[in-house]
Amino acid sequence: QVQLVESGGGLVQPGGSLRLSCAASGSISAYVMSWYRQVPGKQRELVATIPKWGGYTDYADSVKGRFTMSRDGAKNTVYLQMHSLKPEDTAVYYCNARTVVTAYWGQGTHVTVSS
User: With contact defined as beta carbons under 8 Å apart, do 56 and 38 qualify?
Assistant: First the structure.
């Protein structure tokens, strides 16, 4: 079992940047790591996924070219660097760790993009 703690959210103006972090309580080497986001009344949306070996990252079309996900196995942490933020990026961002048999979620961190 692994516990996930997100941080780094906050209020930012359109066009600004934020970096989210997701710290795991143990090794993340066995997990596919992902960032999701959710706004009230809508389904949780997959933002980015990075496999166990970290060789590539998949992104939602809505964030391609603006967001970068990375993983640091030594720190058991994944990051989501967000640039050129838009009001429609406003959401609660969740970290997810999964295998074929289980999945774990963090508590989420709020991101608000507003002038």
Answer: no
3-state secondary structure of 86: coil
Q: What is the pLDDT of residues 63-93, one digit of tens each?
A: 999 999 999 989 999 999 999 999 999 999 9
> Could you tell me if residue 63 is left (phi over 0), alpha (psi between -120 and 50 degrees) or otherwise beta?
alpha
Measured from the Cβ of residue 20, the count of other Cβ atoms closer than 10 Å reads 24
Q: Which two tokens stand for residue 99?
A: 């295998």
* Cα Rg, the chain, nearest whole Å: 13
Q: What is the DSSP string of 37-74?
A: EE-TTS--EEEEEE-TT-S--EE-TTTTTTEEEEEETT
